């Protein structure tokens, strides 16, 4: 085992964010945007968490691979992440699928999305590669994972969550020995392997990998030449290393970043409407499990120049107020009520309207007298006056996208098709 001393390993690392997924389980919310570009938490986008973790960990070389419906994602990154300076040995590369290897070949898998940009990565000469998914909500110090990777002499180090065995069936799951060396890797197993000494729990992959760059490039070139490969980290590269090399699990508990009032580690995949809804509403708790107010580990994003939020009217039945809610800049709550809700930038609420458990995306306008309960409202939607959602399940299901948990997604097209 090699102990690391001296300057942080993050200075010699490049973070490579895989942000090309379709996000189809978010339904109409990803009709016009990639999943990593979906709004989150009042001001941020989902991808801001992986990027902020990299910056806060000390990594100053970042690449982001995009593919499907990437315009809003690229626009956001150009606006929010253009502060990296080459003269400080920093870089931020947006790497759309652009048929650089073949005139007919887009990114064919997560591994291929790295392989096609090997020449760009090599120009920066990173010693380590930190491969990240761009669509999860969490705070993590990648420097600690890099240290474990070097000290253990691993070919690959895989970020893992400790989850109840019954919940692990939807993940890639690691079987490990008593030193967390991975002995088997199984995708979505019916009977997930348990953690030694911790019955009833399993280690699930977070989709975070650390490699020595040279080892990774050799592996990617070999994989690209294999016509039978799906060119995917989880399906092809990781199982191969587990069988013929040394793969080590890194437990999220070892590098999770917690503010003073955060009790446990927090990681969420917001890949479904229900998960997206609940994860946003988690932020409205008095002491939220994820602290967005932590000044020591900021979540960086595009800073919109806008007026402060405003609450107006103070009459019985027409009082602008919010309880257990996050209200962003440029919002006007005019004689209306928001309860356990998130109002993103530029939301306007008309008199006598109410939102209860709502995730209202930017620049929506909620008409007078409207009542919304358990909703996600896509950006730019104008809710008609007097519209009621969340009180008649059958009617809601006919007009909007309603989940099994009773959450309604409302989009512009759905509003346009209403017969009012």
Automatic annotation (TrEMBL):
Enzyme Commission code(s) on record: 2.7.7.27
Stretches assigned to the Nucleotidyl transferase domain: 16-285
Q: Where is each Glucose-1-phosphate adenylyltransferase/Bifunctional protein GlmU-like C-terminal hexapeptide domain found?
A: 307-410
Q: Which GO terms describe its molecular function?
A: ATP binding; glucose-1-phosphate adenylyltransferase activity
Q: In which pathway does it act?
A: Glycan biosynthesis; glycogen biosynthesis
Alphabetized UniProt keyword annotations: ATP-binding, Carbohydrate metabolism, Glycogen biosynthesis, Glycogen metabolism, Nucleotide-binding, Nucleotidyltransferase, Transferase
Q: What class of enzyme is it?
A: transferase
- Record-annotated site: Could play a key role in the communication between the regulatory and the substrate sites: 67, 106
Gene Ontology biological-process entries: glycogen biosynthetic process
Q: Where does alpha-D-glucose 1-phosphate bind?
A: 107, 172, 187-188, 205
Q: Which reaction does it catalyse?
A: alpha-D-glucose 1-phosphate + ATP + H(+) = ADP-alpha-D-glucose + diphosphate
Complexes and interactors = Homotetramer.
**Function field:** Involved in the biosynthesis of ADP-glucose, a building block required for the elongation reactions to produce glycogen. Catalyzes the reaction between ATP and alpha-D-glucose 1-phosphate (G1P) to produce pyrophosphate and ADP-Glc.
Please state which protein family the record places this protein in. Answer: Belongs to the bacterial/plant glucose-1-phosphate adenylyltransferase family.
The name under which this protein is listed is Glucose-1-phosphate adenylyltransferase
Q: Which organism is it from?
A: Novosphingobium umbonatum
């Amino acid at each position: 085992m090699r102990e690391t001393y001296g300057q942080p390993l993050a200075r010699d690392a490049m973070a490579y964010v895989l942000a090309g997924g379709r996000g189809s389980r978010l339904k109409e919310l990803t009709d016009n945007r990639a999943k990593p570009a979906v709004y989150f938490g009042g001001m941020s986008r989902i991808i801001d968490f992986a990027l902020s973790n990299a910056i806060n960990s000390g990594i100053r070389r970042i690449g982001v691979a995009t593919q499907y419906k990437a315009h809003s994602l690229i626009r956001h990154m150009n606006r929010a992440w253009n502060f990296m300076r080459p003269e400080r040995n920093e870089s931020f590369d947006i790497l759309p699928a652009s048929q650089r290897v073949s005139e007919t070949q887009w990114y064919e898998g997560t591994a291929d999305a790295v392989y096609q940009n090997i020449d760009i990565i090599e120009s920066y000469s990173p010693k380590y590669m930190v491969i990240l998914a761009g669509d999860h909500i969490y705070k993590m110090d990648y420097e600690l994972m890099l240290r474990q990777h070097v000290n253990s002499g691993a070919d690959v180090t895989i970020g893992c969550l400790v989850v109840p065995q019954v919940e692990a069936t939807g993940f890639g799951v690691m079987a490990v020995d008593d030193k967390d060396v991975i002995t088997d890797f199984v995708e979505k197993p019916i009977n997930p392997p348990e953690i030694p000494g911790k019955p009833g729990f399993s280690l699930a992959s977070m989709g975070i990998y650390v490699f020595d760059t040279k080892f990774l490039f050799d592996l990617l070139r070999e994989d690209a030449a294999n016509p039978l490969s799906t060119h995917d980290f989880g399906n092809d590269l990781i199982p191969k290393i587990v069988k013929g090399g040394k793969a080590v699990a890194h437990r999220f508990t070892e590098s999770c970043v917690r503010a003073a009032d955060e009790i446990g580690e927090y990681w969420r995949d917001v890949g479904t409407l229900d998960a997206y809804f609940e994860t946003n509403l988690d932020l409205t708790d008095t002491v939220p499990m994820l602290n967005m107010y932590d000044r020591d580990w900021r979540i960086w994003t595009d800073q919109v120049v806008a007026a402060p939020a405003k609450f107006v009217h103070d009459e019985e039945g027409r009082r602008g107020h919010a309880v257990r809610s996050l209200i962003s800049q440029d919002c006007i709550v005019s004689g209306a009520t928001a309860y356990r809700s998130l109002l993103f930038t530029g939301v306007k609420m008309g008199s006598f309207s109410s939102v209860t458990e709502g995730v209202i995306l930017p620049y929506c306008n909620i008409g007078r007298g409207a009542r919304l309960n358990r909703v996600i409202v896509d950006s730019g939607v104008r809710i008609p006056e007097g519209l009621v959602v969340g009180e008649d399940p059958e009617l809601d299901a006919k007009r909007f996208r309603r989940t099994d948990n009773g959450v309604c997604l409302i989009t512009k097209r759905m509003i346009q098709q209403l017969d009012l």
